[in-house]
Design a protein that fits this description.
This protein is mainly alpha-helical. It contains ten helices and two strands, in the order H-H-H-H-H-E-E-H-H-H-H-H. The model has no long low-confidence stretch (mean pLDDT 91). The structure holds zinc ion. Zinc ion binds next to loops.
Length: 269
């Protein structure tokens, strides 16, 4: 099977996981558990299997419920496509391992898919509600912390991380936790600092620092663009959730393994 075929299969697998992540996002803290059939949010009709096909159902139904014709949030389509796309990029990162080290390829890919699925849920939740739920971010922190005992770059197996690595998440988040404390939450949310702890443990100190810097750069560019375009009464006071930008920073750094020296070399002509 060639790489393109694998990429396409992984993309569709990602859209299925994405449709599950949508369920997690909507049912999180809404009182409904993860069990039970999906319903239309508007008319409460139980949806059939053919209304739950990732991407296709939304497009075929023109983004509306078949019965009550209420618009379905484009979030469903976006999260499905986004997850598929991220899974495809993660596959490309490890694809060279596939022919000779198939089980290592699968292990690393599942590991990466798990963390970036969690980041998709956190990002979309932060985007919608401007808050990062503790349950989600603590899950991310604990798993990333434990992960460094078992996954080291492209090798898998138990090994004690360095003393510095054991504190990488806390070191990265500390300055931002202080900013949160002294600005009394006005300059920065505590949820963002917690997310940085997880990113620090997932990527290590050097790459984690770059991920946070990229998050700030992406966030600043987006805020300035929105200001210049004067979109929908956007002002500097509008709260832009920072979580999604941190997650994109983490993804870019993870995909291309950008540590501090690599990052600085971009600026040296
Ligand atoms: Zn309906």
């Amino acid at each position: 099977m060639d790489d393109i075929a694998i990429g396409i299969i992984i993309f569709f697998f990602g859209t299925i996981i994405g449709s599950f992540l949508n369920v997690v996002i909507y049912r999180f803290q809404s009182g409904r558990g993860l069990g039970g059939r999906s319903i239309c949010m508007s008319c409460s009709r139980t949806l059939s299997w053919f209304e739950l096909v990732p991407l296709a159902s939304f497009i075929v139904q023109d983004g509306r419920c078949r019965t009550c014709k209420t618009r379905i949030s484009p979030q469903y389509l976006i999260v499905e496509a986004l997850t598929g796309f991220i899974f495809m990029l993660l596959t490309l990162k490890y694809i060279a391992l596939l022919p000779a080290h198939t089980s290592l390829f699968v292990a690393l890919l599942v590991y990466a898919m798990y963390f970036f699925s969690l980041l998709v849920v956190i990002s979309v939740y932060d985007f919608r509600h401007k808050i990062i739920p503790d349950k989600l971010v603590y899950t991310f922190i604990v798993c990333a912390f434990l992960g460094q005992f078992f996954v080291h770059g492209t090798s898998v197996g138990f090994a004690m991380p360095s003393a510095l690595a054991l504190f990488s998440g806390l070191i990265i988040a500390l300055p931002f936790a202080l900013i949160w404390y002294f600005s009394q939450g006005r300059a920065m949310g505590l949820g963002d600092a917690k997310l940085m702890i997880g990113i620090g443990y997932l990527l290590g100190l050097s790459q984690g620092v770059v991920a946070v810097m990229l998050g700030f750069i992406f966030g600043a560019v987006t805020a300035l663009s929105l200001l210049l375009l004067r979109r929908s009464r956007f002002t500097m006071k509008s709260e832009i959730p920072f979580g999604p930008f941190l997650a994109v920073g983490a993804l870019v750094v993870f995909l291309y393994t950008i540590d501090i020296p690599t990052f600085l070399s971009f600026f040296q002509s």
